């Protein structure tokens, strides 16, 4: 009952938000050059769908590729610094420095190296999304209970045995939680690079639309990005709930 | 129980015969750190533990009891002297070792049954048999063991569904599933209430009488030591030395009622006085 009510309120808030937007635009006579009404944006979305569709696929594809590479990079680095104290102490300062660079600043450099287009977009989404994965994997691996490690070592377990039987499964909730965050970051990276240096993708569509004062189209792009972002987040939340249910089920009543 | 009997036992190490030396500390000392920051955890100590013996280590906190346990497990190396386990240098895995701590450390993503079977995935010769047909036999063995500690009905439950006492029973099962010749227990019942603790003394005593592994038990509870052990060593404050080493002669199986009889109470008093003076000596 409580959950149904929560859901209902959430839906009401979203509907109310768009209704208020529509009504205020009409009531205050806001020009659609400044802020188009949601109904206009929706109409633009439908009318321009054939044009927007390939751009959306481009953005989605670039994001997923950058994300996949980011996950791979994050997994490897996270595993290495999570298992080895020495690697952790050695590499952490560099990683912190690297992650604190505003990622917009690296796009021109990628363009310099690889030209404009898909490659800098993939690389930007990679560098922006791998860090949360590194941190979560490393934390998950480093927090194995020392007593359990002693029990297993006394059995003659190798480091690999412990990693396989304890470290990796224990890290899964951290890993999947970080995937949700990382996929959203990867998305930001792609759009960022597309707006700066690409002639394809939603980011590019929005830049072109804004220089043509085609404001409804720019907003249509924004809506597509929001939709994609929500869909990706939801997809990885679902995977997380499936794979690491054991970590979130503790609230059920004990025997 | 038939399932256990039908499984091939690993070839017995020489030290498996009752009475042979299972653990020998030869003038073994442990110091953590170096230079001025060095902390002597264990003063040079000589101690023999025979196979099948149940030895309890008692003493003030921080006196090096757990250090001796870790030496026997091969988890740390002595700074000087030698530690021989099963006739070989500690850590050489001459004996199969089972270990249990106060924290049951069950893996939350596995059922109790699979948690208990974890050592079989790691220790030879079980490990290489695990994938093949042996799996059902292993499960039967886990069930038999869980049955013995009264947890048979909970084999398919997850750790968060069990109480602290139940988890500690499962922890004992996990420490015993691979038929260790040496069982190392570090305050296994320290976090439990008194009634659960006394109940588990009985469980542990039965398991020991059944299998007769060599047991090294670290505890703060003098009644626990008197109930379970065949021999009690009292240690001094840090750096630990063995102050007193005496056998406990009460007949087995022992009962909780026995712990209130005059002989038992006077043993407790004697141990207590030794520890109190050891603590005073360090202050």
UniProtKB/TrEMBL annotation, chain A:
The chain crosses the membrane at residues 65-88, 94-114, 121-142, 174-196, 217-236. It is found in: Cell membrane. It is a multi-pass membrane protein. InterPro entries: MetI-like, MetI-like_sf. It comes from the Bacteria. PANTHER family: ABC TRANSPORTER PERMEASE PROTEIN HI_0355-RELATED (PTHR30151:SF20), ALKANE SULFONATE ABC TRANSPORTER-RELATED, MEMBRANE SUBUNIT (PTHR30151). Belongs to the binding-protein-dependent transport system permease family. This is Riboflavin transport system permease protein RibX. It comes from Methylobacterium isbiliense.
From TrEMBL, chain B:
Keywords: ATP-binding, Nucleotide-binding, Transport. This is Aliphatic sulfonates import ATP-binding protein SsuB. It comes from Methylobacterium isbiliense. One of its GO terms (molecular function) is ATP binding. InterPro entries: AAA+_ATPase (IPR003593), ABC_transporter-like_ATP-bd (IPR003439), ABC_transporter-like_CS (IPR017871), ABC_transporter_ATP-bind (IPR050166), P-loop_NTPase (IPR027417). It comes from the Bacteria. Belongs to the ABC transporter superfamily. The gene is ssuB_4. PANTHER family: ALIPHATIC SULFONATES IMPORT ATP-BINDING PROTEIN SSUB, TAURINE IMPORT ATP-BINDING PROTEIN-RELATED. Residues 23-262 form the ABC transporter domain.
């Amino acid at each position: 009952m409580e959950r149904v009510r929560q859901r209902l309120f959430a839906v009401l808030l979203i509907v109310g938000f768009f209704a208020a937007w529509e009504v205020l635009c009409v009531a205050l006579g806001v020009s659609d050059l400044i802020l188009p009404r949601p109904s206009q944006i929706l109409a633009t979305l439908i009318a321009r769908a054939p044009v927007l569709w390939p751009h959306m696929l481009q953005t989605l594809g670039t994001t997923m590729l950058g994300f996949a590479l980011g996950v791979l990079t994050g997994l490897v680095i996270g595993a290495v610094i999570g298992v080895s104290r020495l690697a952790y102490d050695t590499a952490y300062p560099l990683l912190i420095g690297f992650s604190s660079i505003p990622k917009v600043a690296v796009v021109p450099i990628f363009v310099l190296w690889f030209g404009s287009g898909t490659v800098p977009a993939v690389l930007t989404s990679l560098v922006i999304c791998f860090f949360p994965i590194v941190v979560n994997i490393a934390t998950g691996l480093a927090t194995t209970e020392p007593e359990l490690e002693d029990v297993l070592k006394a059995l003659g377990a190798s480091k690999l045995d412990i990693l396989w039987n304890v470290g990796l499964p224990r890290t899964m909730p951290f890993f999947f939680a970080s995937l949700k965050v990382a996929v959203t970051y990867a998305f930001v990276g792609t759009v960022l690079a597309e707006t700066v240096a690409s002639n394809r993708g939603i980011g590019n569509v929005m830049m072109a639309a804004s220089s043509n004062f085609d404001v409804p189209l720019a907003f249509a792009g924004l809506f597509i990005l929001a939709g994609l972002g929500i869909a990706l987040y939801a997809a990885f939340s679902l995977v997380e709930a499936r794979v690491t249910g054991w970590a979130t089920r503790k609230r059920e009543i004990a025997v | 129980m038939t399932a256990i009997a039908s499984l091939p036992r690993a070839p017995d190490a020489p030290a498996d015969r009752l009475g042979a030396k299972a653990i020998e500390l030869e003038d073994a000392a442990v110091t953590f750190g170096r230079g001025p920051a060095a902390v002597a955890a264990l003063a040079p100590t000589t101690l023999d533990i025979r196979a099948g013996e149940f030895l309890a280590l008692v003493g003030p906190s921080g006196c090096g009891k757990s250090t001796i346990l870790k030496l026997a497990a091969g988890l740390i190396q002595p700074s000087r002297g030698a530690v021989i386990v099963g006739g070989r240098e500690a850590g050489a895995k001459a004996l199969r070792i089972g270990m249990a701590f106060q924290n049951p450390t069950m893996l939350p993503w596995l059922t109790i049954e699979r948690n208990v079977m974890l050592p079989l995935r790691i220790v030879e010769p079980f490990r290489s048999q695990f994938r093949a047909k042996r799996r059902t036999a292993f499960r039967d063995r886990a069930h038999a063991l869980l049955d013995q500690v009264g947890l048979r009905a909970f084999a398919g439950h997850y750790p968060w569904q069990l109480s602290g006492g139940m988890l500690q029973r499962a922890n004992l099962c996990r420490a015993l599933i691979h038929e260790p010749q040496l069982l190392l227990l570090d305050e296994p019942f320290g976090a439990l209430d008194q009634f659960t603790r006394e109940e588990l003394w009985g469980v542990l005593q039965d398991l020991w009488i059944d299998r007769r592994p060599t047991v090294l038990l670290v505890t703060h509870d003098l009644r626990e030591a008197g109930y379970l052990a065949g021999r009690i060593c009292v240690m001094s404050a840090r750096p630990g030395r063995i102050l007193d080493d005496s056998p406990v002669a009460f007949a087995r199986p022992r009962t909780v009622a026995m712990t209130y009889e005059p002989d038992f109470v006077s043993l407790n008093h004697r141990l207590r006085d030794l520890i109190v003076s050891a603590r005073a000596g360090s202050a």
